[in-house]
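We were asked to recover a plausible sequence for a given structure. The inputs and outputs are reproduced exactly as logged, with field labels preserved.

PROBLEM: sequence recovery
POSITIONS: 396
GIVEN STRUCTURE:
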């Protein structure tokens, strides 16, 4: 019996240490399906998301979902530590190395207590190991506990640095593509500002962003659960908007080269496919509802009214459908799994950017703001300051 418990304790220790190595140290995606971390997130996320679906679609739901990422990380670290303490306590009990007092035999609870004080290097000294085997196990456990603490101290800053890098471009997209961001709004604003030539550089920046997203989120999948600062923004919505924009440029827009759009499309598509594989999320069947034939006609009309000529030759609609079929099944399945809504292709009517709103302006006593419209357009009664901010021209 003692030998069996000792073997189980050793297996627990090896399993947790290998899981810690794969999660924190190993800088690549782990394809093995049977993992403690994978099992933990699958077990915890399902009831958490089920509760979130019961909540009304409001800030309360988004707040509830935003807690999951950071909280699950802390719970996972606690789970690792608890299993390691339990594993070492099992080995201690198997070799009979602890005693509650000088003349009384120890118990498993005593071994568990001593294992905890050793793992967290408390050094209370009220219980001491007996024999060479017990002392050896004590030194090993203290080393493991100290090493895990060092890994966690180094792990959290790297994790939050990756999160911050991700969010910078997402925040900047607000003024360039609206909130939530859409491909048509991104192109329209650049056209009205006379900056269509800058779209190529913008896509180059988003190619780098997609590559960084791929590297960081494959190494640390928990970042996928971290939500953006604003409820109407997300890394998935930004990635979807970039893919939509690249698809339109690749179909053909007069005066715009396709090369950078092709590069960005490949990188962004690679990112969403690999992230979907992390969660074993099979791509959904493409139903085309995100952009119907009527919606495509609306896209062409909106772009044409803004002075953007989207190619409309035989086969162009089929080309766009083929491009969408390469990524939309993955974005849709991840949207359902993570409960992150995808943006449409065109902005919502009278949508306001995040920079145009604040909690103070939404209070009943706040004066009505007349500028809650798309950023590039002025409305009657709008202040000169907001027109200048929208157009970038002080003479406006």
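RECOVERED SEQUENCE:
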């Amino acid at each position: 019996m003692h030998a069996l418990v000792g073997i189980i304790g050793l297996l627990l220790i090896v399993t947790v240490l290998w899981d810690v190595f794969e999660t924190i140290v190993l800088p690549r995606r782990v394809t093995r399906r049977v993992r403690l971390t994978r099992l933990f997130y699958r077990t915890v996320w399902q009831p958490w998301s089920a509760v979130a679906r019961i909540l009304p679609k409001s800030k309360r739901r988004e707040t509830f979902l935003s807690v999951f990422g950071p909280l699950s990380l802390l719970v996972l670290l606690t789970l690792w530590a608890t299993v390691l303490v339990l594993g070492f306590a099992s080995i201690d009990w198997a070799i009979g190395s602890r005693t509650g007092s000088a003349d009384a035999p120890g118990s498993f609870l005593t071994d568990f207590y001593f294992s905890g004080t050793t793992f967290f290097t408390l050094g209370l000294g009220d219980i001491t190991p007996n024999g060479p085997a017990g002392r050896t196990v004590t030194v090993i456990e203290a080393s493991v506990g100290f090493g895990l603490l060092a890994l966690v101290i180094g792990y959290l800053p790297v994790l939050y640095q990756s999160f911050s890098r991700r969010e910078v471009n997402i925040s900047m997209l607000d003024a360039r593509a609206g909130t939530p961001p859409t491909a048509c709004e991104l192109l329209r604003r650049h056209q009205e500002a006379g900056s269509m030539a800058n779209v190529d550089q913008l896509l180059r920046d988003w190619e780098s962003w997609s590559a960084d997203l791929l590297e960081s989120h494959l190494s640390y999948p928990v970042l996928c659960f971290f939500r953006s600062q604003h409820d109407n923004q997300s890394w998935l919505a930004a990635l979807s908007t970039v893919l939509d924009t690249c698809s339109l440029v690749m179909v053909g827009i007069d005066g715009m080269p396709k090369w950078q759009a092709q590069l960005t499309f490949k990188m962004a598509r690679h990112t969403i496919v690999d992230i979907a594989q992390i969660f074993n999320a099979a791509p959904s069947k493409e139903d085309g509802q995100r952009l119907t034939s009527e919606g495509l006609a609306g896209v062409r009309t909106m772009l044409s009214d803004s002075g953007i000529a989207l190619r409309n030759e035989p086969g162009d609609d089929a080309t766009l459908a083929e491009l969408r079929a390469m990524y939309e099944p993955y974005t849709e399945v991840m949207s359902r799994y993570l409960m992150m809504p995808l943006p449409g292709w065109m902005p919502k009517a009278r949508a306001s950017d995040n920079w145009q709103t604040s909690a103070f302006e939404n209070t009943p006593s706040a004066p009505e703001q007349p500028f809650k419209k798309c950023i590039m357009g002025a409305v009657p009664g709008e202040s000169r300051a907001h027109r200048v901010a929208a157009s970038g021209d002080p003479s406006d």
